[in-house]
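User: Before I run my own analysis I want an independent prediction to cross-check against. Here's the chain; please return only the structure tokens and, at the end, one sentence I can use as a sanity check.
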Amino acid sequence: MSALLLLAGAAAFGLMALSDWLCVLRGRAWGGRLFAAGCLLLAGATAGLLAGRGAPRPASLPWWALAAGMLALLLYTLLGALPAGGSHLMPPTEPALRPLVDTGVYALCRHPGVLWLGGFYLFAWCAAGGWPLLAAFVLFTGLDVAYVFWQDRVVFPVSIEHYRLYQQTTPFLVPSAASLRRCLRRRESGEENTDPEGKDQEWKR
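Assistant: Structure tokens:
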């Protein structure tokens, strides 16, 4: 059963990538449904893997708290840090470029969601143990890195304004000291955006 859940979770990334290809590179608006299906499939597979580990032990509660924190950061990154409550998380269905968001968590690195997703599975494994959650951490994080690498090189440069400049100024996945300072400074100052063109990004992980 765990193997089937892992395969389902892996297939979810394929659905999301296919959605990007259809919507952005082929102009097929209906492909956005595959992105939603992929998100639901990954959530369902994860829920199944967690349900198989039984009730949490008291000693594991700190790890579960860390896992919950990673999940909260992921949801904030995808739904709270993007305009309109994350409504632009879905792949674009129109040829117009979407504006760039390079503030907040997106000043930290270009794909902070990968860090939070990987952290969630890592801490969940630390809390509950078992090979399925360890496999989920390795497999899903690896697939997520491959997915955002493809987005970063193929999809976003043709769908988000000023993305090439963003690639030059912000790390891919591993935050730098400069990007951390930029992230914290902008949050403290309450700046909405410091992009020279005054643009905000509305779709990216």
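Sanity check: Confidence is low (pLDDT under 50) at residues 191-204.
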